[in-house]
Amino acid sequence: MTPADRPPPAGSGPAAPPPPSTPRPRSGQDAGSGPAARPGPARRPAPPAADTEPDRPGSGPGAPPGPEPAPEGPGPAAATGARRPARGAADRPAAPLGRGLARAAAVTGALTVAGAVFGLVRDQTIAHLFGASAQSDAFLIAWTVPEMASTLLIEDAMALVLVPAFAHALAARDPGAVRELASATFPRLFAVLTCVAALLMVGAPQVVRLLAPGFGDPALAAECTRLTALTVLTFGVTGYFSAALRAHGSFLRPAAVYTAYNIGIIATTLALHHLWGVRAAAAGVAVGGVLMILVQLPAFSRHVGLRPLVRPRRRTGRAPLIGTAVLAPVVLFAVGRQSQVLVERFLAAPLPPGAISHLNYAQKVAQMPMVLSLMVCTVTFPVVARAMAEGDRERARRRVEEDLATAGALVLLGTAFVVGHAPSIIEVLFQRGAFDAGDTATTAAVMRVYAAGLLGHCLVGALGRPFFSAGRPVWFPAAAMAAGLGVTIAVGAAAAGPHGVQGIAAANAAGISTTALLLLHGLGSRVVAIEVRAIGLRIARLVLAAAAAAAAALLAAPATGPAPVSLAVGAVLVPLVFLGAARALGAPEAVHLLALARRRLRHDP
Question: Which residues pair with 250 in a beta bridge?
């Protein structure tokens, strides 16, 4: 898989006063920036937009992230009821991305695309050098460690715990709260992750036997696992820095970490594969993890400071902002999500050599639309967390509803393209060197099956954020993920024998879709009172539009010639059919995406 978010820097003086009031925004801005959602005597001052540029000095004194309005003081406790105001709530408009959030999303999106491109170059390099073979399978078994660490420590668990924690600290308007949070949490985290990484290095053979029983070359997989185990520490530090920076409204450096990571893997693999074979790729994973930290270190030092990371917490008597009760359900949710991949590799290990590689390449490419669609939720998560910290449930509801619809539209557009052009995509990306036409056909077939679960993966990633935005224990997402994982295990065990890797991919799609449906139903009654039926109808219209676009691509692809030409035609045809069908079906997301694209092309903020 894939995918990841201002008061003065630590050690500086008191927070600056709130910025002056600004004129009423245009209708295209975030609804949270418009007229007050709740009745009051006067509008609250609107802070500046989120920092999406390279961490300018003095760019954010005292301002919360994003273009949402900040109250004069701390709002009601986040633990209040989840009901939204009844008077006129249903008639209020949705909350499209405002100017500041749109800029943040654009920067995050551009760097996410860059990271994905380098990720493809990384996969192409490994496929070219080692094909779909026992060597590549050994590396991918070892790669399970950084994949799990990425989900736990960068993409999900760390962000879901720390972004709300830092948001609550910022909402307190106390410049010492952020420093105290860092000094109370980082040293312990660093010590725990160091011990876990050391245990994985020592117990690498046992880890391989657990992950892939029956694999043909466990010694090679164990050697690679010892190298990749370092990412438990480096990804933990990376995730901590990313969460803190996103909560402060700085998105540039967190979005750049995967570019640095993949560059480290590519460079190390190319430099050392003649000497170390596939072990060079595992060493590249370790190098890439270190580069992820270095990319963010200057910005983190500027916003939070480095001294709180090594000095003991001050005794202030304030309640801790995070703890075991909050952390446990988040960790279980993230582990359950990543366990989908563990189940796949466990079931594929006894299959012929190359099965794990086919699953991996298909999943990596198929999930790119999901990763890109979630950039919207990555940018807006601090906004939702801040709204929850201030007790503004109505603003959080509007933001979550619009995010679900926008992310769904983006992922379904990508799904249509993947279904229609899977063979051409794999041929252009991977068919060279040791990766032959047979590997292309198998991987493309698996990728089309994976595509059935892309909407589910997107919704799980989007829905997990508001569940944990209140900074209090919520166990329902972990239970929903466990139910979906049970479906994956049951379907995979039954389908792997007769259907091979395609059966395993179908199990993944069934399991994650089950989790998505449970989370969608549970969010409205537990945390943020979204209109579940209305959101379901909006997504259903988009599914029909994606089906029409996929059908058009399937019909046109055989008649458009070589794979590069077919992809170029599909890049025009699929969006046109999707947006046209969505507009004909009355889906407002099509109009919104077209308007946003026109603004970006005209450089209109």
Answer: 51
